[in-house]
Design a protein that fits this description.
245 residues, 8 strands, alpha/beta, Rossmann fold, globular, eight-stranded mixed β-sheet, single chain
Length: 245
């Protein structure tokens, strides 16, 4: 399940409405966004390692992003944006759904976090460039993937870091992330469209076309004993870091 649906060229209105309807339950760990709550610690672990490696940071630091600007595209109600702020970043979150932004603003205020949330097309907001750009579980929902990646690249400052995740288009992801997950209610029906998933090869090529070099790829897999975990198995979901070529 994605954090939202923002694209540089067009937002898919139906998808924005779908996720907007989930806004008020976004922060409920047992609600319709429960899968995101389970994935978030893994995404943060991958991101933290990428940040420390990219900027040669201290893994023991509690604020490795101090002094840096971070942009979370497709931020939903702020599940990733808030941890980025706690890691020291000056955070801007962008989402397609006004409902998500309203909930995100209220939750951040209640948590004492100063996060600049915006709703609308990324390309139209005039936000400038950022040291860190994230787009987690968003690419598969945009109407124009090349344009979206070009916008992410355009918002990435020289020497900056992009962290992105998206489901892989495999038989396993069709079975587990669409069929089974929706059937048992782990993900709201209509969240995923398998044909919009992106393979690692396609992802690397698309990033290259946007002027970015893809680095480490990791997967999120489901273990019967351990649940969701980071893995070298990319059959379900891919997390990737990238920087300017």
């Amino acid at each position: 399940m994605p954090d939202a649906t923002v694209t540089a060229a067009t937002i898919r209105p139906g998808e924005a409405e779908h996720f907007g309807r989930l806004a008020h339950d976004w922060w409920d760990p047992k609600g319709p966004s429960a899968m995101l709550h389970k994935m978030n610690p893994l995404r943060l672990a991958f991101l933290r390692e990428a940040v420390d490696s990219h900027w040669d940071g201290d893994p023991a630091s509690t604020r490795p992003l101090a002094g840096k600007r971070a942009l979370d595209v497709g931020c939903g109600a702020g599940l990733l944006a808030e941890p980025l702020a706690r890691l020291g970043a000056e955070v801007t979150g962008v989402d397609a759904a006004e409902e998500n932004v309203a909930v995100a603003k209220a939750h951040a205020a209640g948590s004492g976090l100063a996060i600049d949330y915006r709703a609308g097309e990324l390309a139209a907001l005039g936000l400038g460039r950022f040291d860190l750009v994230t787009a987690m579980e968003v690419l598969e929902h945009v109407a124009d993937k090349p344009a979206f990646l070009a916008e992410l690249a355009g918002h990435l400052a020289p020497g900056g870091l992009l962290v992105l995740s998206t489901p892989n288009r495999t038989p396993q992801s069709r079975l587990l992330m669409v069929g089974l997950a929706e059937a048992i209610g782990a993900i709201p029906k209509g969240t995923h469209h398998w044909d919009d998933f992106v393979t690692p090869h396609e992802l690397r090529e698309s990033l290259a076309d946007a002027g970015l070099i893809a680095g480490t790829l990791k997967g999120i897999t489901l273990s019967p004993l351990k649940g969701l975990q980071l893995s070298d198995d990319l059959s379900l979901d891919c997390l990737v870091i990238a920087k300017h070529a």
